């Protein structure tokens, strides 16, 4: 048994999330966490909404609300959506808590003390008419690299290159169109080159990473530059240094504060659990947590933050970069065990885009379809190791042909036949080699499926679980228990159904990490009582340090099924089942495509 940290990428709170967002890391991290808990590990799954930075400030200004009001709105929307998907966070919080501010400032302070944060003079933009600082994203101009005429001061959306505002050709303010003036301004930079060697050594020891992630990360080390960690902006975590902490125009850069969220959320979880030091079991590189495992789940566009920048912060905080130093007051901290990145999901052949309406939001999806139907699609056809296209035709086909006609049909016909003929789980007597073979296939699934989930090969894992389902359907067709009607055939009919039901129960356990909502229902149809697949709940909490309250996702996941075959008890009463999955009409495809076309 190990302590396992599941650190899930933080959704940005500037709008509702679409299914592309949850396909890459939201659902896969939940599948992994549920399996690891069932296998007996002590899992801590944390994340939250990422709420600072210019995009939220810009959007809030456009809507005439404060950045905090905008973040409050979308924090709640996102919490509700993730709850609807059944994602079993131990804590899903946000970056605007006072706890998070304190942890971010503690890391900043220790990194500065250890010499890894350096001050530099750069050029910053200012509005000539108001004298106010213009944040990077408020400046627009022509990209010096590709010539795109609406590049932003921090990035060109056309060629994807990161920019500084003074590089833009014909820069203009997005607020009033005037030409900004550039003046010297001071900012803090993280001395990334001081970590190149330590990160290189650490990457050399990584095993089991997806090869493309490891290669990409190693290549980044060849050209590490100091990276700005403060910005001209009012919305964010204040800089915790004398002469800076009271300034209203300088804040810690959003990426620096967001990656620290994994740690601050773990600390918040521990403080709420009644044992404020409990987080150390997953984080402390000294005795308490030194054997803990940490898995980070994200889209491929975020690899750099998790395989280079976050390790650099952790190394610098622990005093383990080129410049040495002393660990901060939290002690030496664990680096990630594995960075699990997913590829991208597209929709009907196009990139998801809210502005171009190539989108389906999680909320709208869950209003029309079941959470497990989406979870199934993501597991079998998600962007695990290739960019993948979501099409409505494929969604309907997978739902109807595989989930309903394969798994749902097996559950439905085996339970209804047993309920009708026996009213209970029948007795299995005189097992034939065919009976034994099927039971063995199901039992063997625990090792196969579990190992694949542990290696982040969820597509192969659910494929193996569905093979058990297919074998059981084949067995039922061959044994044809509906033909065994005479009095002397009755014991054989009971045996076939008992074997089928045992395999339904085992397959249901194998599918539980993927399909927790329906797994609970199937468990109950088989006469089970209590919690089989624990679910998260939304809790309204007070900020622990006097800030405004907010909703979190949390839950008790110590209950529920274990990763093992549990023998069904002969004589347990069974009732005729209601279908667990819904068949979708083919007309759904046209309706959804019409919605997309607007
Ligand atoms: Zn460009």
From TrEMBL:
<feature type="domain" description="Methionyl/Leucyl tRNA synthetase">
    <location>
        <begin position="5"/>
        <end position="414"/>
    </location>
</feature>
<keyword id="KW-0479">Metal-binding</keyword>
<comment type="function">
    <text>Is required not only for elongation of protein synthesis but also for the initiation of all mRNA translation through initiator tRNA(fMet) aminoacylation.</text>
</comment>
<dbReference type="GO" id="GO:0004825">
    <property type="term" value="F:methionine-tRNA ligase activity"/>
</dbReference>
<dbReference type="Pfam" id="PF19303">
    <property type="entry name" value="Anticodon_3"/>
</dbReference>
<dbReference type="InterPro" id="IPR041872">
    <property type="entry name" value="Anticodon_Met"/>
</dbReference>
<feature type="binding site">
    <location>
        <position position="354"/>
    </location>
    <ligand>
        <name>ATP</name>
    </ligand>
</feature>
<dbReference type="Pfam" id="PF09334">
    <property type="entry name" value="tRNA-synt_1g"/>
</dbReference>
<dbReference type="InterPro" id="IPR015413">
    <property type="entry name" value="Methionyl/Leucyl_tRNA_Synth"/>
</dbReference>
<feature type="domain" description="Methionyl-tRNA synthetase anticodon-binding">
    <location>
        <begin position="425"/>
        <end position="547"/>
    </location>
</feature>
<protein>
    <recommendedName>
        <fullName>Methionine--tRNA ligase</fullName>
        <ecNumber>6.1.1.10</ecNumber>
    </recommendedName>
</protein>
<keyword id="KW-0963">Cytoplasm</keyword>
<dbReference type="InterPro" id="IPR029038">
    <property type="entry name" value="MetRS_Zn"/>
</dbReference>
<keyword id="KW-0067">ATP-binding</keyword>
<feature type="short sequence motif" description="'KMSKS' region">
    <location>
        <begin position="351"/>
        <end position="355"/>
    </location>
</feature>
<keyword id="KW-0862">Zinc</keyword>
<comment type="subunit">
    <text>Monomer.</text>
</comment>
<dbReference type="InterPro" id="IPR023458">
    <property type="entry name" value="Met-tRNA_ligase_1"/>
</dbReference>
<feature type="binding site">
    <location>
        <position position="159"/>
    </location>
    <ligand>
        <name>Zn(2+)</name>
    </ligand>
</feature>
<keyword id="KW-0030">Aminoacyl-tRNA synthetase</keyword>
<keyword id="KW-0436">Ligase</keyword>
<feature type="binding site">
    <location>
        <position position="146"/>
    </location>
    <ligand>
        <name>Zn(2+)</name>
    </ligand>
</feature>
<keyword id="KW-0547">Nucleotide-binding</keyword>
<comment type="similarity">
    <text>Belongs to the class-I aminoacyl-tRNA synthetase family. MetG type 1 subfamily.</text>
</comment>
<keyword id="KW-0648">Protein biosynthesis</keyword>
<dbReference type="InterPro" id="IPR014729">
    <property type="entry name" value="Rossmann-like_a/b/a_fold"/>
</dbReference>
<dbReference type="InterPro" id="IPR033911">
    <property type="entry name" value="MetRS_core"/>
</dbReference>
<dbReference type="InterPro" id="IPR014758">
    <property type="entry name" value="Met-tRNA_synth"/>
</dbReference>
<dbReference type="InterPro" id="IPR009080">
    <property type="entry name" value="tRNAsynth_Ia_anticodon-bd"/>
</dbReference>
<feature type="binding site">
    <location>
        <position position="156"/>
    </location>
    <ligand>
        <name>Zn(2+)</name>
    </ligand>
</feature>
<feature type="short sequence motif" description="'HIGH' region">
    <location>
        <begin position="11"/>
        <end position="21"/>
    </location>
</feature>
<feature type="binding site">
    <location>
        <position position="143"/>
    </location>
    <ligand>
        <name>Zn(2+)</name>
    </ligand>
</feature>
